[in-house]
Amino acid sequence: MVSSLTASTSGLILLIRFVREVFPLVDRELACWRDYAATHGMRELSEQALASIHAKKFHCQGGSVYSLYKGIPTSDFVRLVVALQTISDYLDNLCDRAGIADEAAFRQLHLAMTDALDPDRPISDYYAVYPYKDDGGYLPALVTTCRREIAKLPSYSLVKPEALRQAGLYSELQTYKHLDPLVREQKMLTWINPHLPHYPGITAWEFAAATGSTLGLFMLCAAAHKPNLTASEAETIGHAYFPWINGLHILLDYFIDEAEDRQGGDLNFVSYYGSSQEILSRLTLFVHQARSQANSLPETAFVRTVVDGLLAMYLSDPKTMPPAERTIRNSLLHSAGWYPRLMYGLCRLLRKRHML
């Protein structure tokens, strides 16, 4: 009981630091990229860059919690997280909002994700197959910023293979999920099915969800700041995040968007569940597995706070208020325990104050 209270107190202190110290740093970094996008490049690309920053700021906020990992220079790591997440969000807009459905173009654009995490490879021509090409250096600047911050991580060589693997899977997902609805499901299944024997107990669409999270990348980079990181620790982190913690992240994201995506005809992995009972059952499984995996990692209290924070952040979204979503939300919070419920209340307060 004492250890549980101590961990919970540490988590609350972390949350307070997160809001007070990290949020302003995220705002500062995004302001720099917003200014860059507004003054460089052609209108079509500039508009997508600005739209992604405006609509998806909370992605950068959430990922930047890893800047509070033990021993990390917070400001430097926020710079890395914001740059990498902004690449992800910007490319998502280019694939989803510009009226383009070109597999080769999407694959070429997403070389930016792996380039950002591999300082040893040359910068690619990201727009080679895309109809709009002049971003005024915006995407290469984001990639270069990531590389510069990664160079400061003393143990990056140990996490690099897994980081590139997860970034590669993320890029594959983004390449296929934005294709024409007539072909995207079969393309995705053809890509996913060979991977499934390595991940017993999850469905094809749960695997796809796990590939869609950047949290594993941030955790691997955070761990790489430890000078004496071991290969075993790096491997354990990779297994903990993929598929369970990553999967929980994206399944919660799709859960709150399911009704909206259904109306818009957009791909949503939660929609592949057969009923509300199955949604609750599978989300409960991912919560249990993610929390169990957190207990296997160094700095357990930190990772548990991140996992519980995912529940609090997503379930506090107003999109969980309709009756069906509210029933699932309340069940998840009830089974999670008092601490995630406390964080949920704090997230609701932050939303009322327009801080989330």
What does this structure look like?
This protein has 356 residues and is an all-alpha fold. The chain has one domain (2-352): Farnesyl Diphosphate Synthase, CATH 1.10.600. The protein contains 16 helices and no strands. The chain has helices spanning 2-39, 43-55, 57-63, 74-96, 103-109, 111-116, 138-150, 156-177, 181-192, 204-211, 215-223, 231-264, 276-294, 300-315, 323-336, 338-352. Helix 3 packs antiparallel against helix 4, helix 14 (300-315) runs antiparallel to helix 15 and helix 14 packs across helix 16. The longest helix is centred in the first third of the chain and has 38 residues, at 2-39. It is globular. It starts with a helix and ends with a helix. The model has no long low-confidence stretch (mean pLDDT 94).
CATH architecture title: Orthogonal Bundle
Q: Beta-sheet strand percentage?
A: under 5%
CATH class placement: Mainly Alpha
Tell me the number of helical segments per DSSP (H or I, 4 or more residues long).
16
Order of helices and strands: HHHHHHHHHHHHHHHH
Summarize this entry quickly.
It is built from 16 helices and no strands.
List the helices and strands and how they pair.
Elements: H1 2-39, H2 43-55, H3 57-63, H4 74-96, H5 103-109, H6 111-116, H7 138-150, H8 156-177, H9 181-192, H10 204-211, H11 215-223, H12 231-264, H13 276-294, H14 300-315, H15 323-336, H16 338-352
Helix pairs in contact: 1-2, 1-4, 1-14, 2-4, 3-4, 4-7, 5-8, 8-9, 8-11, 8-12, 10-12, 11-12, 12-13, 12-14, 13-14, 13-15, 14-15, 14-16
